[in-house]
Amino acid sequence: MNVINAQNLSKRFGTHEALSDINFALPAGESLSVVGPNGSGKTTLVRCLLGLLAPSGGLASISGKPYSSAHHVRVGYLPEERGNFQRDSPLDVLRLFGRLRGLNHKDASTRSYEYLEEVGLMRQARSRIQTLSNGQQQKVHLGLTFIADPDLLVLDEPTRGFDPVNQGLFRDHLQRHLQRGATLLLVTNQMHEVEELTKKVLFLRKGRLHFFGQNHSAKEHLGRRTTEVTYTGQLPKDIERWNLNVREPGKAVMEQEHGLHDANRLLAGLLAAGVEVTDFNSRLANFEEIFMSIYGDSAATGSLVA
Ligand SMILES: Nc1ncnc2c1ncn2[C@@H]1O[C@H](COP(=O)(O)OP(=O)(O)OP(=O)(O)O)[C@@H](O)[C@H]1O
Ligand SMILES: [Mg+2]
Asked: CB within 8 A of 51, min separation 6: which ones?
């Protein structure tokens, strides 16, 4: 059963087409990163999926029907803007959200304390949220999202403002929710999060779907392979056929588009020619490199800003 389903989903603001013809589905228990440059439509997509914006065309559904507050799927949503509850305390707001999401008084209280303890906010439990630092406020808002174990987590840039320690804390916490079977839609521009937190990725480009699929398939389809060889001795005379670029003495890189098969043939060819290979590395591009290859040039000139 698909928890998230977008069919020809479009959203216009005036004459500006923020989302055009988006199609994808995410089954229960799976995890997806939504990636794209600023203004590419990520938040608009999330808002359409959760019924906070009415689509201009197409359909957005959660477990088979448009999302509304009466929906049977319990959603934990961390919005992009998080300025709410400034005058309340973390403890009060966490308990309130626990109650609103169906926990009894005792469980809402216990979970609130457990969360505050886990994220190191016990000392600030009764302070006004407005007196907390940016990252601390962020932790409170994530707590509101996670409390009562939602079926679907929709997180819009959850680690913005987190230091590396808190990023790790967030990762561990999220992993526990994924292990219990929660479905995850994560909006992020942190490419290491795509790698570490989700199995699938959706790239948006000017409001259009550029790629949707498994992480490994994104790497195969969107990323170049890089093959580097370190060696001693002379390269064979017919070296041109390998498209090797000697960057410095004893170190060469295979240029041009190539697959693992070509990399293996190169290695075999070098060994057969008597070259002593001291290091050999062939790898697919990581998501950082893929992001730059999709958006790099045009982002620099601003032409991708939707
Ligand atoms: N309520 C709105 N009214 C008019 N235009 C809007 C509205 N919301 C978004 N837009 C426009 O739609 C486009 C996509 O915005 P969106 O917030 O979805 O981008 P984003 O990918 O989430 O960007 P960021 O990475 O900066 O958060 C932008 O050009 C934005 O100006
Ligand atoms: Mg956004």
From this structure: 60, 66, 67, 68
The pLDDT of 48-61, averaged and rounded, is 96
Which homologous superfamily is 1-73+151-222 in? P-loop containing nucleotide triphosphate hydrolases (3.40.50.300)
Say if ligand 1 is within 6 A of residue 36 CB. Answer: yes
For the cut 90, the answer to whether the pLDDT of residue 54 exceeds it is: yes
Q: Is the pTM of this model over 0.85?
A: yes
pLDDT tens per residue, range 208-251: 999 999 999 999 899 889 999 999 988 887 777 778 888 898 99
26 lines ligand 1 (CB under 6 A): no
Strand arrangement, sheet containing 31-35: 57-62, 2-13, 16-27, 208-214, 200-205, 31-35, 183-187, 152-156, 75-78
Write down the pLDDT at residue 68. Answer: 83
Q: Do the Cβ atoms of 57 and 10 come closer than 8 Å?
A: yes
Measure the CA–CA gap between 65 and 306, rounded to whole angstroms.
29
Q: Whose CA is nearest to atom 27 of ligand 1?
A: 38
Would you identify the CATH topology of the domain 224-284? Alpha-Beta Plaits (3.30.70)
d(CA 286, CA 223): 8
Nearest atom in ligand 1 to the alpha carbon of residue 189 is 25
Does residue 199 contact residue 30 with C-beta atoms inside 8 Å? yes
Q: Is the CB of 41 under 6 A from ligand 1?
A: yes
CB distance 54 to ligand 1 below 6 Å: no
Is pLDDT above 80 for 306? no
